[in-house]
Write a structure and sequence with these properties.
The protein has 11 helices and no strands. It is mainly alpha-helical and 246 residues long.
């Protein structure tokens, strides 16, 4: 069932309700709280202005467009993801990065669909994270073109699994949608798809595409940890080839 936003406080021309100065960071935090509560589909600049008790023009003065605000929301959600530098091996650092990213998305599942589109395309990824990933990969032995390729693989692997695991379910008639999908999965014909039907007991609701719950209710813990290890193993193998051919 959809939540209905509470009655807004009286609007002011400048300061938000409560009297604190309005900043871009406070707007992003309010937008993240709103998306956590009501979902991305209900998000608008007007709703955030209402939540803060100011006029929309005041929000636009700090953040010019909806897309710019969504980029700030994504960056705010990811602000604490980067592990400390210099305390871990490069393999352990990347594993910790992936786990912290997943923990963040688990706390804010409604932002999952923002991460690929907003963090990367709008350049909102925290520079500390970029610095950390590059430093870890240089420690692993990458440089030049191989550093670029390894970096892109790490970012894609970090965001790809969690954005799929926590991808949002339909906001309307979620239970009916889930029941319909579950029935459809279990009526796949063995003659048409013999490999899929043979492995369906293993895959159903625990594998991407053939599931009807997301990671909020059915987390893919084992698959995620294997994903982390496969990514690191692949980077190690790639680094070995790079060093041998240097």
């Amino acid at each position: 069932m959809k939540k209905t936003p509470a009655k807004p406080p009286p609007r002011t021309a400048g300061r938000p309700a409560g009297g604190a100065a309005l900043t871009k960071q406070r707007i992003a935090e309010a937008a993240l709280e709103y998306i956590d509560e009501f979902g991305l589909g209900a998000f608008s600049m007007r709703e955030i202005a209402t939540r803060l008790g100011v006029y929309p023009a005041t929000v636009h003065w700090h953040v010019s467009t909806r897309e710019a605000l969504l980029a700030e929301v994504a960056a705010t959600a990811m602000a604490e993801v980067t592990p400390s530098a210099g305390k871990l091996t490069w393999q352990a650092w990347i594993a910790e990065l992936f786990r912290r990213c997943r923990a963040t998305v688990r706390r804010h599942p409604n932002v999952a669909q923002l991460l690929g589109a907003q963090l990367v395309s709008n350049g909102s990824l925290p520079t500390e994270l970029v610095e950390g990933v590059l430093a870890a990969l240089i420690e692993a032995g990458f440089e030049g073109e191989s550093l670029l390729e390894a970096y892109n693989c790490v970012i894609a692997a970090m965001l790809g699994f969690v954005t799929m695991e926590f991808s949002p379910l339909p906001s309307d008639n979620t239970q009916a949608w889930a029941e319909e999908l579950r029935e459809r999965v279990h009526t796949i014909r063995p003659l048409d798809h013999p490999v899929l039907t043979r492995h369906l007991p293993l895959l159903a609701n625990k594998a991407f595409i053939v599931r009807w719950d997301n990671g909020t209710t059915v987390p893919l813990d084992g698959s995620f940890e294997r994903h982390v290890q496969i990514t690191i193993d692949g980077l190690e193998a790639f680094a070995s080839r790079v060093i041998r051919t240097a």
